């Protein structure tokens, strides 16, 4: 009898176990079966007047707004038998590895060697298979490491909180500035003249802009007269910063900072036809600038030459920015990128288009991205992914992809800023990727390890992406966010399909919330600065105004892999090139070079503010020749410069030579001539 009752108890338990393990799909967090899924409690925020209709998945199956696409482009080649066998083998390997891993670990946090044979051949919109898999160095073997990065405090007090940051070419100084509106900072100007506060009898003797030497930490304060609060900018073909817009008397101002030890800001008030507060500045293929949007101005205009002024006749109406305007905006600081076909990709709120700036017409609209808003004040982040070139490049169409991560529900700002008591909604956990050169491009959505808003997206010298800074709940705005996201996350640009695209790295102990920023440095470290959730400089707030500056060493700076670092011999390398030109870079190192493990990239330093890295661009160059042992431990790499300015606008780039996935000791500044 006792056995009978035991059987009655045990049989249902066995049924539950069998059902959960064999009938229902197991959840694999590193290979989610429904990537982009959000639970029902999250869906209430997907409003704001934008209908997130059905999105077509790659296999042609209609998906709901929360089921967009299962997995990424890593699975596009599962059609042939060889790939299926390989996939089954990898699945068995993964299951074995999972048994040995900690049960509570949701994401694969290890790094894997990436074999050259693991390339993904994705069919383009014309039905032709992209031949990029045949390129030597197109997908590079990288060394294994379990190093999760390290942090160092670089400057205790920069004097100015880094609302805006850009690394200036050749002089290797980070330009940092915030706003003049508060009339205070942590650094006084060295002497007169002080700034006269417009409309008052006050004088402001505080610095609101500095140059920070990224090697010595020397600080030089700069004078500003016209308010730069929430402005925009870009480097011109001579390496100067051209900054646009700001607040009040600075909203229609153009500013220029040249490259010299004694240079000061030149300011040209009234140069713009509209005020540009929270606007985005983009560099065109000819080196000219266009500035988009700004509060109350759904327009764009070309930035006038130095000393000239636009009239209202030079301003172009852009209804797209009206159409994407929520009751609380969510379309300021739009994401704008120059595509490889010369058109501009513009993303605002949850919609994106291609704009021809010659005809001022929208030539294509991409599918709506579901799941919330992405632009200020929802403040996700985005970047153009690496542009991959081959030796002797001759393709008419060069693929280009954009990655958009994080953000918030449409009503996050309303609840955090306008409602009392404040309510801090969870931020988005998704990352969406799309090929902007395909007219049938679709969003491929995956989940990050954690929610992120107010974050920054850093394209690393290797082509991988670092997600850093920001919060997990709330919105942009004064005291409108909570739960700092202290952990950087690595997004692998290319994978072999066996593991997660995301790896959680070691955290900082400094919250970097609203108004944080970054810069990629010549030694491949990342400068991290800023964070000010307060209308002024406050030390006693929940998140005090942050003037400390850190450096983060990513995974590739594992001390155990230092033997792979190469040194660029600048004096024997070409640092000025023309489009399509073959040029030589000489390297020296301590290991025998295997060309399959060699990668050369050029990186355009962005103007960074509010999670928007304006004009950030990384291009992998084709290796035409590799000449070994031209001297002891010395090799020559013959490269081809980008073939046209749609791929790489003229100006300064940081050239990195990466070996085995490890960047060189110091990049070299290269100028692409117009």
Automatic annotation (TrEMBL):
Stretches with biased composition (Acidic residues): 70-81
All copies of domain Galactose oxidase-like Early set, residue ranges: 573-672
Pfam families in the record: Glyoxal_oxid_N, GO-like_E_set
Xref: CDD domains: E_set_GO_C
Highest taxon of the lineage: Eukaryota
Region (Disordered): 65-108
Tagged with keyword Plastid: no
Signal sequence range: 1-20
Keyword Signal on entry: yes
Alphabetical UniProt keywords: Signal
Basic residues: bias regions: 85-104
Domain Glyoxal oxidase N-terminal: start-end pairs: 163-556
Protein name per the record: Galactose oxidase-like Early set domain-containing protein
């Amino acid at each position: 009898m006792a056995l009978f009752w035991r059987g009655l108890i045990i049989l249902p338990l066995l049924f539950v176990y069998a059902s959960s393990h064999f009938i229902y799909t197991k959840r694999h967090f590193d290979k989610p079966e429904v990537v982009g899924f959000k639970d029902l409690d999250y869906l209430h925020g997907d409003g704001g007047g934008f209908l997130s209709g059905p999105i077509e998945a790659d296999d042609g199956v209609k998906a709901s707004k929360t089921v967009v696409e299962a997995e990424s482009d890593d699975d596009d080649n599962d059609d042939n038998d060889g790939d299926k066998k390989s996939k089954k083998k990898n699945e068995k390997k993964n299951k074995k590895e999972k048994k040995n891993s900690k049960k509570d670990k949701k994401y694969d946090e290890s790094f894997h060697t990436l074999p050259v044979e693991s390339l993904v051949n994705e069919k383009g919109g014309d039905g032709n298979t992209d031949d990029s898999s045949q390129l030597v160095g197109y997908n590079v073997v990288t060394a294994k490491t379990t190093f999760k990065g390290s942090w160092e405090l670089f400057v205790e007090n920069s004097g100015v909180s880094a609302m805006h940051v850009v690394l200036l070419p050749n002089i290797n100084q980070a330009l940092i500035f915030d706003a003049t509106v508060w009339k205070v900072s942590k650094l006084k100007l060295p002497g007169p003249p002080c700034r006269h506060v417009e409309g008052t009898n006050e004088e402001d003797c505080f610095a609101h802009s500095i140059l920070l030497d990224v090697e010595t930490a020397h600080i030089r304060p700069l004078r500003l007269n016209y308010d730069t609060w929430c402005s925009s900018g870009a480097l011109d073909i001579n390496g100067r910063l051209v900054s646009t817009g700001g607040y009040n008397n600075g909203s229609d101002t153009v500013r220029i900072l040249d490259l010299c030890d004694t240079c000061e800001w030149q300011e040209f008030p009234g140069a713009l036809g509209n005020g540009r507060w929270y606007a985005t500045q983009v560099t065109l293929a000819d080196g000219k600038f266009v500035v988009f949007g700004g509060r109350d101005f759904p327009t764009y205009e070309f930035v006038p030459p130095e000393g000239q002024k636009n009239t209202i006749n030079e301003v172009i109406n852009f209804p797209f920015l009206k159409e994407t305007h929520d009751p609380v905006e969510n379309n300021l600081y739009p994401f704008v990128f120059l595509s490889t076909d010369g058109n501009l990709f513009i993303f605002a709120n949850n919609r994106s288009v291609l704009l021809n700036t010659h005809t001022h017409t929208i030539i294509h609209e991409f599918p709506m991205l579901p799941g919330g808003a992405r632009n200020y004040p929802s403040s996700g982040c985005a970047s153009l992914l690496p542009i991959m070139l081959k030796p002797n490049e001759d393709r008419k169409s060069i693929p280009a992809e954009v990655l958009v991560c994080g953000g918030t529900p449409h009503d996050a700002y309303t609840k955090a800023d306008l409602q009392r008591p404040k309510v801090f909604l969870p931020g988005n956990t998704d990352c969406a990727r799309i090929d902007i050169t395909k007219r049938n491009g679709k969003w491929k959505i995956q989940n990050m390890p954690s929610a992120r808003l107010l974050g920054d997206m850093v394209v690393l010298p290797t082509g991988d992406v670092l997600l850093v800074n920001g919060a997990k709940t709330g919105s942009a705005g004064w005291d409108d966010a909570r739960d700092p996201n202290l952990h950087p996350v690595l997004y692998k640009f290319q994978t072999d399909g066996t593991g997660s695209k995301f790896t959680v790295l070691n955290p900082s102990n400094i919250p970097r919330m609203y108004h944080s920023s970054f810069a990629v440095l010549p030694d491949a470290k990342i400068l991290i600065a800023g964070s000010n959730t307060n209308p002024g400089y406050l030390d006693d707030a929940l998140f005090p105004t942050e003037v400390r500056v850190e450096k983060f060493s990513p995974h590739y700076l594992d001390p155990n892999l230092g033997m792979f670092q190469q040194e660029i011999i600048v004096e024997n390398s070409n640092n000025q090139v023309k489009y399509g030109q073959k040029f030589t870079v000489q390297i020296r190192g301590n290991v025998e070079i295997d060309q399959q493990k060699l990668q050369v990239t050029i990186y355009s330093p962005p103007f960074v503010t509010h999670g928007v890295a304006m004009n950030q661009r990384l291009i992998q160059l084709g290796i035409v020749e590799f000449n070994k042992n031209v001297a002891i431990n010395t090799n020559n790499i013959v490269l081809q410069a980008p073939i046209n300015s749609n791929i790489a606008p003229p100006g300064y780039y940081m050239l990195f030579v990466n070996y085995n996935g490890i960047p060189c000791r110091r990049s070299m500044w290269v100028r692409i001539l117009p």
